[in-house]
Amino acid sequence: MKKFGMIVMLFLLLFVTACSSSTSSSAEYPSKNLEIIAPASPGGGWDLTARSVENVLSSQNLVEENMSVVNKPGGGGEVGWKHLESQDAHSLAINSSLVLTNNLLGQSELTYKGFTPIATLATEWQSLAVPPDSKFESASELLEAIKKDPDSIKIGVGPGLGNDDHLSIVQAASEFGIDPSQLNFLVYEGGGDVVTALLGGHVDAVTTSLSEVKDQYLADKLNILAVSSDKPVEEIEDVPTWKDQGIDLVFPHWRGIMGPPDMTEEEIAYWDEKLGEMVETDEWKKVLENNDWEGFYKNSGETKAFMEEQHKLYKGLIEDSGLVK
Amino acid sequence: MKAIKLSVPIFFILFSTVFLIASFNLPKANLGNPNAPIYFPAGLSIIMLLFSVIYLFQELKKLHKENKYIKEMLSGRTPKLIGFTLLLGIIYSFIFERIGFLSSTIIYLGALLFYINGVKKWMVNIIVTIVFSFISWYAFSVLLGVSLP
Amino acid sequence: MDGGSFVDGLMLSLQPINIFWIIIGGFLGTVVGMLPGLGPATAVAVLIPVTFGMDPVSAIILMAAIYYGAMYGGSRSSILLNTPGDGSAIAATFDGYPMAKKGQAGEALAISAVASFIGGLIAVVGFIFLAEPLATFALKFGPAEYFLLMLLTLSAIVALSIGKMVKGFLAMMMGLTLSTVGIDTQTGVYRFTMDIPHLSEGIDFLIVIIGVYAIGEVLYNLLTIDREKKEKKKVGRVWFTKEQWKRSKWPILRSGPIGFLIGVLPGAGGSIASMIGYTTEKQISKKPEEFGKGAPEGLAAPESANNAASVGAMIPLLTMGIPGSGTTAVMLGALVMLGLRPGPLLFEQQPETAWALINSMFIGNIVLIIINIMLVGLLVKILDTPSKVLYPIIVILAFIGTYTLSYSTIDFFLLLIFGFFGLLLKVMDFPLAPLVLALIVGAEMEQNFRKALLSSNGSFDIFFSSGVSIALVILTIVSLLYPLIFKFFKKRSRVNNPDQASKSS
User: Fold this and answer.
1) Are residues A184 and A269 in the same domain?
2) Within 13 Å, how many C-alpha atoms sit on residue C7's CB side?
3) Are C455 and A203 inside 8 Å of each other by CB?
4) Do B103 and A18 touch (CB under 8 A)?
5) Distance of alpha carbon C46 from the chain centroid
6) Mean pLDDT on B132-144
7) Shortest CB distance from C223 goes to which of B41, B73, B145?
8) Any idea what the CATH number is for the domain that residue A216 is in?
9) Rounded distance between C-alpha atoms, residue C239 and residue C376, angstroms
10) What are the backbone angles phi and psi of residue A256, rounded to the nearest 5°?
11) Residues A51 and A100 occupy one common structural domain
12) What's the whole-number mean pLDDT along residues C184-188?
């Protein structure tokens, strides 16, 4: 037993000393490998965004340092962002409106103010869809029916209340004069399940990302009543926006990137330059096209203002939705 | 022996009781039926409580019967072996992210092998530890691109 | 089905580069399937950066090969070490491990590979001829039908625990209770998360599988490790006997279609398919008492079912763009990145891509059976490894597998807790499968039940409102009454042959 203990000690000593890495700080930024934190598991939306950014930046030689994607899934972004908080400026993380709503819903202590806004990268639009044989042919007909009897219309949403899919319809409903807390939601695990439920006729309408329903619409499997964009979307120009139907609503479902707190001016400027170049490349445009995203680039300064504005909007929406009392 | 035999049903009773109490203390839902999140876990814990009591009586009835596995568990160096494996596992969990995959794995695997396989076979132990740790690190981190610390 | 595209697709899938990817994918899938915790979803996800530079057709072929390759591999460790790598491999432990213990490891590995192969072929043929109608059929499954399907699965689990009903029920309840941890999807309320953000998405059933099976099994073996006999363990032949084949033939052919149909349903998947395949065979078998003691048909049936399910899961992905399982969800994300969007337009716009994939599954299954048969001889050598070296290695593999699930060491503590808990349950002779399977289906079951009632405004009629739901209710009742019927017949046969009964008891 004694011998054994000695050996363990030896092992411990050997490797603790061998592996205590030294970190050096230098004025040049970036001075070491960069990492992009995807606060989700590999294969999810945030992960794919992170990998696309990393891929375009390195394949176009915009960034010469080694870049890697680190997955920190859990708590709707909470785990990854919490990790970012403790990193230096060589780590960035992908974000979306969840960075605002987690806190507003009382699920997280982290706020958007605790991080350095770097950029807004891309957006998707939200859609309201019904089965092809639905008696509702326009969004206002549907909202009118909800106004009369909220219990009669079941709306599919996923993967949780308080997300953009949910809040976009909350905003539309309150613009229409409906108390959004009266809406009837069936919550599904994800966007795909929502569409399945709609195709099978198990819900009356769904609110989800446009990309989930666009192909189905083109194949005549369902009907889209409204999109949340400011102007008609390519390929499906015949689908009206909310604005076209007299409801004042433009609702982007954006993705962005942010850094740890207290980044210096130079570090922020570095990313403004690199990401500004990145969004102009053909490779990035290809990424947008493949994912049905739209370019929504805002640099760090614009993103800061955008976040504040969004924060105000979401605060109101979440109060309206009845999720928080 | 009897203590271990009874500890399992008692664990189930405690678990379901705690769960039942926790179920009733769940926050109410703000949308829809405020009690909707409570029914299922509360119902489950009541049924579970019922079954664990039945199970307790079943175990009490055959308390005198010998369970050879429990006997094994308490004899020789097995309690030490199990405790050691778990304890090292806890240490491993703490050092895994601090000192990195490779070194923590070498320590954990090395220690386990030396303890279980015995110091006499130190040659095998060291070779297996080093070779296996490097292969798994290479396979996961380099070939598969899993981000190990 | 359209002949021209079929041939185009066949030619495309026969291109050397695609054959190469099938082999790589099949091999990689087999390997990750064998390792605890590493499943096809993780394997496909970590390969996404690799696929960036690939042709989309090759990428989808590679990812699909990993998926069904993992179904082949998953049962290897179930049979040899009683440590399933994934939910769909749990059923393979029921009879596969007892076979290995009886010295029939080689036979068990061979029969499970052949069963997977035939199940896969049945499913590919089903895919070719029935993809469209089945996709429409799957849409009929609403919340009520899903709830009833989960209920059927649970009743099948209960029926398994004959003889230790109370323990089986307790384990199941435990699984269901644990499944309520995390955000309640329907209302957004956080349940039992103890303010740990990591728990908000629930306890990953894979951690529990690795914990109770892999770690639990290692600890359990530590009990007797010092008294292990030195002699070489028998591993038997590397091919099965005629008798074993005779017993397995029909179960394989029956379970293939069952698994395929369940696989088509989005969200059901391999775990449910293999469980239902297993219990169906047990219930119609003439010798149900041999199940769980190394009956070859008890291994063949779930193996055939889960491989067929993995092929079936491709149907909603390809025809509707809807991922039916965790793995196909990751595949969808990766394919979209490459500009290939599976969905209703795929068969119209790029039929050769779709058919190339379907044909590649034919070729892939052939490649896989060759790989797996060749591996039998090598794999049985694992049993020759001294257990004092083998078990520490399994422990490390379990930790790595857990880490790849969510890259957090919090899961390590859960792993150890469930490992110790698994040991206690084993020692007290609890069945482990109900715990894990209940955890897998629990959350979906509750949510679908509530969704069903919400959509019917509280009326229970919804559970009897469609042909599918009535059929499921009947199957559930039959499956629950089965233990009673079983007892009844046993009693009768005992009355009829009093000599035999007294001998056997």
Assistant:
1) no
2) 2
3) yes
4) yes
5) 21
6) 83
7) B73
8) 3.40.190.10
9) 9
10) -140, -170
11) yes
12) 86
Show contacts of C227-231: CB within 8 Å, 24+ apart. Answer: C228/C387
Number of domains in chain A: 2
Distance from CA of B109 to the nearest CA of C (A): 6
Max Cα–Cα distance, chain A, nearest Å: 82
pLDDT tens profile C433-468: 899 989 988 888 999 999 999 988 888 999 998 888
* pLDDT for residue C505 is more than 50: no
CB atoms A19 and B110 under 8 Å: no
Q: Please report residues of B whose CB lies closer than 8 A to that of A16.
A: 99, 103
Best residue of C190, C207, C314, C330 to probe chain A, by most A CBs closer than 10 Å: C330
Nearest-Cα residue of chain C relative to residue A216: C344
- pLDDT over threshold 90, residue C239: no
Q: What is the pLDDT of residues A35-81, one digit of tens each?
A: 999 998 877 788 889 999 999 999 889 998 888 888 888 878 888 99
DSSP reduced 3-state for C41? helix
The verdict on a CB contact (< 8 Å) between C404 and B140 is yes
- State the average pLDDT over residues A168-174: 93
Claim to verify: residue A202 and residue A132 sit in the same structural domain: yes
- Chain C residues in contact with A44 by the CB 8 A cut-off are 333
Q: Encoding tokens for residue A172?
A: 């539309």
Please, what is the average pLDDT of chain C?
Answer: 86
Specify whether A240 is located in the same domain as A268: no
Record the pTM: 0.87
Q: In which domain, by residue range, is C399 found?
A: 3-481
Find out whether C54 and C62 touch, Cβ atoms under 8 Å.
yes
C355 inside domain: yes
- Whether B16 has its CB under 8 Å from any CB of chain C: the answer is yes
Which pLDDT belongs to residue C340?
84
Q: Which residue in chain B has the smallest CA separation from C445?
A: B40
Q: Say if the Cβ atoms of C389 and B124 lie within 8 Å.
A: yes
In angstroms, the CA B134 to CA B105 distance is 9
pLDDT for B148: 73
Chains with at least 3 CB pairs less than 8 angstroms from chain C? A, B
CA distances (Å), origin A2, targets A5, A7, A9, B119, C385: 5, 9, 11, 11, 28
Note whether residue A106 is domain-resident: yes
Asked if A111 and A260 sit in the same domain, the reply is: yes
Confidence category of residue C254, pLDDT binned at 50, 70, 90: very high
| Whether the complex's predicted ipTM surpasses the cut of 0.90 | yes
Q: Is B116 on the interface with C (CB under 8 A)?
A: yes
pLDDT, tens digit, for every residue of B83-115?
999 999 999 999 998 888 899 999 999 999 998
**Within a domain: residue C327?**
yes
Last residue of a domain, one of A186, A217, A245: A245
Q: Alpha carbon C119 to chain centroid distance?
A: 13
pLDDT exceeds cutoff 50 at A22: no
Residue A16 covered by a domain: no
Answer yes or no: do A159 and C454 touch at CB < 8 A. no
What pLDDT score does C1 carry? 53
Q: Name the residue range of residue A260's domain.
A: 33-123+252-321
C362 part of a folded domain: yes
- Whether the pLDDT of residue C230 is over 70: the answer is no
Q: Return the percentage of chain A with pLDDT > 70, whole number.
A: 92
CATH number, domain of A37, equals 3.40.190.150
Same domain, A95 and A140: no
Count of domains for chain C: 1
Apex CA C435: angle with CA C431 and CA C439, to 5°?
160
* Same domain, residue pair A113 and A132: no
CA distance linking residue A139 with residue A248, whole number of Å? 13
> Would A302 be classed as within a structural domain?
yes
- Alpha-carbon distance B61 to nearest alpha carbon in chain A (angstroms): 42
- Would residue A96 count as lying in a domain? yes
**Residue C18 banded pLDDT, cuts 50, 70, 90:** very high
**Closest residue to B109, CB basis, from C47, C50, C396:** C396
d(CA C204, CA C440) in angstroms, rounded, equals 9
Looking at the structure, tell me whether residues A118 and A267 fall in a common domain: yes
Greater model confidence, C386 or C228: C386
